Structure formats: structure tokens, C-alpha cells
Amino acid sequence: MRTKEKCFQAKTIEEAKMLAAQEFDVALEEIEFEVIEQPKKGIFGIAKADAKVKATYTLGKAEIAANYIRTILDKMNIENASVEITYVDGGAVLDIVSDGMGVIIGRRGETLDALQYLASLACNKGDSEYFRITVDSCGYREKRKKTLEDLANKIAKKVAKTGRTSTLEPMNPYERRIIHSSVANVEGVTSRSQGEDPYRKVIIRSTNKKPRYNKDNRDRRGGRKPRPQKQSSDVFMTSFEKEYQRKKAPEITADDKNEKNYDVGLFEKLDI
Q1: Cα–Cα 20 to 30 A to 89, which of 32, 41, 245, 256?
Q2: Residue 103 maps to which CATH number?
């Protein structure tokens, strides 16, 4: 926190206090006053000396962040810009109102995120208690949140249906929290962050088990049906029929007796 001190003079103490409130641009209740000199009246009630008060104002972290942003906007030559402070639990929201909204927001809110990061560093410097600063402009944060929720819901349903993992583009921590929160509402999928900032991204994957390959269902996926195997007729033959159909050795004729040997079957010879 930072402190501002200044002395103010006026005909009355009340007028001096009003000058201090106008100078610090805060309510009277936020300023501590110390009366240094009382107004002195001369003859006929004419004021002889003005009242003098010492005003002390301690800037809160939200005011420090707002003043820091005003300084940057001046350096960016953005005219007619104002910063409105709204206090929330554990921090404050700084809403920038200006005609140059596109320049302040930047591509996908990158300039707005940079202002938020720098303002947070400025107000939390040297203090162990963290004060959350959110910088917005013309309701951009709420619109971006709705867009991310719709995107996460659409991709999560697609992953649950196809089973294919999907990787989103790099996002800041605030946007990744929105994605994780939306994915948690879709059954059958899960999400996790991977990588290092500023390239850290969200990965959405299915939690359903992949179906096993089944030969009987090949035709459902466009494949060929397995051909039925032909059963051999030997299965239904008796041992007598098998023996009858077996290839027999050729009969020995009179001409063959003069030969020394002759072939029998395919594998052996018979000596005569």
C-alpha cells in the first residue's frame, strides 16, 4: 500500500476537506484529516486566516493497479479512457471504458491479459498477501467465457463419440480453468493440461474403453466377411471306404517278372 499526504487551506475546515477529497478523487470517509490551523476571524467577522488541514490517504491495491493502467493507457495514446473499480471477494475487477476497445483487448484478449499481469505485479509488489486483479473491457471476459464453454462442450462430446484425443490451442490459466470446468460436465471424457506457459495447452481424451476387434463384426466396418471353410468329405467316410479309395499298387504281369524290380507305390521298391 502507498500513502499520499498533502496540506489544504480554505476559509473553513469543511472546505479544506472537500478540496482534499477532490484532489485524491475518493470519498471523505477514506481520508484521515489533521487540523493544523483553525480559521481566525478578524473585526466584523471577516476571516483573518484560512483553515489548514493535513490530509492522509492510503491507496489500496485496487487503486494502485488502476493508476498503473491509466499511466499505460496514456503512453498508448488512448484518449477518453477511464478505469472503473468493482471490488469482489479477494480482489477487484478493473473495467476499462474507452473508444479504442479493439486496441485495448488485442487478439483474443492478449493485450488485456498483458495489462492484467502487469497491474497485478504492480499492486502486489512487496506484499505477501495476494490481491487478485482482473482487467476487463466492455464485457469482453464474459463473452470470451461463453465462447470457451461452448467450444469445450462441443469438443468433449466429439471425443466421447469418436474416442479420439483432441488437443486445444495454448491458453492462459484463466481460460484453461474454464475448459476444465466445462469438460467435467460431460460424461465419458477427461481433460488435463500439458506443457509450459505460455504454450501450456489442454488435452481432452475419452475415458471409455476401446472396443476389441471381432472377426464376426468385420462386415459392419466395411470389411469382408470370412469365407466359410469347406468341410472335407473324408469326415463322413467309413474306414472301409477310405481303404477302398486309397491308391493301390499296380498288378504284376508276366512281362514284369523279367525285370529285376519294379515300383510299388511312391516310397519303396520291391525286389523280385
Answers
A1: 32
A2: 3.30.300.20
Residue 241 DSSP label: H
Is it the case that residue 96 has pLDDT exceeding 60?
yes
DSSP conformational letter for 119: H
Centroid of chain to Cα 130: 22
Q: Do 50 and 69 lie in a common domain?
A: no
User: In terms of residue numbers, what domain contains 39?
Assistant: 2-58
Classify residue 225: in a domain, yes or no. Answer: no
Task: Give the separation between CA 70 and CA 66, rounded to whole angstroms.
Answer: 6
Q: Is 238 helix (H, G, I), strand (E, B) or coil?
A: coil
In a domain, 160, yes or no: yes
**How many residues does the structure list for the chain?**
272
Select the more confidently predicted residue: 190 or 216: 190
pLDDT tens digits for range 112-122: 989 999 999 98
In contact, 31 and 24? CB cutoff 8 Å: yes
Judgement on whether residues 133 and 85 belong to the same structural domain of the protein: yes
Task: Tell me the per-residue pLDDT of 173-186, one tens digit each, with 9 for 90 and over.
Answer: 889 999 999 999 99
Q: Is residue 168 pLDDT above 70, yes or no? A: yes
Cα 41 to Cα 49: distance, rounded to the nearest angstrom: 7
> What does pTM read for this prediction?
0.57
Please tell me the distance from the alpha carbon of residue 98 to that of residue 90, in angstroms, as a whole number.
Answer: 26
pLDDT at 158 (0 to 100): 93
- Nearest-10 crossing angle of helices 173-183, 140-162: 50
Shared domain check, 126 and 70: yes
How many angstroms separate the CA atoms of 99 and 172, rounded? 26
Task: Answer with the one of 166, 190, 206 that is the final residue of a domain.
Answer: 206
Domain tally, the chain: 3
